[in-house]
Design brief:
By secondary structure, this protein is α/β, with parallel strands linked by helices. The chain has helices at about 30-45, 55-70, 90-95, 115-120, and strands at about 1-10, 50-55, 80, 105-110, 135-140, 150-160. The chain has one domain: Phosphoglycerate mutase-like (Rossmann fold, 3-Layer(aba) Sandwich). The radius of gyration is 15 Å and the shape is globular.
């Protein structure tokens, strides 16, 4: 059984308009939401064996915060250029190349691609994965290369304001 946890980067800072999209950091809310969402996963006893992220600053920082909360070496985070502004089909290619020693993978990326990809996985639909939102599925496979063609089961979704609405 493989478990995939999709995480949209935490809220980014738009206060410096001259800063390029790739280089936008997290804002204060993003800096609060990322550790809180990682803690929610830990409280649910959700295991993450590997952290894979877009190298864009806001995604990278979100992944680093999650790895820190998981007491995982941030040097072990895999950064993949293709996950920056990735369309849905890129996610399948990235997942198919994951090392099979990992049973649970967290991928940190951006909208609209991450939401489009999440909606392609199961019959469960989400209009928009909010910043620092999570969408998770399970697949009864042994090798990540089989993920794309395998039936997937919706596991859970969560986002920072869940329960506050």
């Amino acid at each position: 059984m493989k478990q995939l946890i999709l995480v949209r980067h935490a809220k980014s800072d738009w206060s410096t308009p001259s800063l390029g999209d790739f280089d936008r950091p997290l804002n204060e809310r993003g800096k609060r939401d990322a550790p809180m969402m990682a803690q929610r996963l830990l409280e649910k006893k959700i295991k993450i064996d590997v952290f894979v992220s877009s190298p864009a600053k806001r995604a990278r920082k979100t992944a680093v915060v999650f790895a820190k909360e998981y007491k995982s070496d941030k040097e072990g985070i895999i950064f993949i250029e293709d996950l920056y502004a990735a369309p849905a089909e890129v996610f399948s290619a990235v997942i198919g190349r994951l090392d099979d020693q990992f049973d649970s993978a967290a991928i940190f990326s951006h909208n609209p691609g991450i939401t489009d990809f999440a909606n392609s996985l199961t019959n469960t639909r989400i209009d928009n994965i909010p910043t620092c939102g999570i969408f998770a599925v399970k697949a009864d496979i042994r090798k990540w290369k089989d993920f794309e063609g395998a039936p997937k089961e919706f596991w859970f979704a969560d986002y920072p304001k869940a329960g506050l609405d």
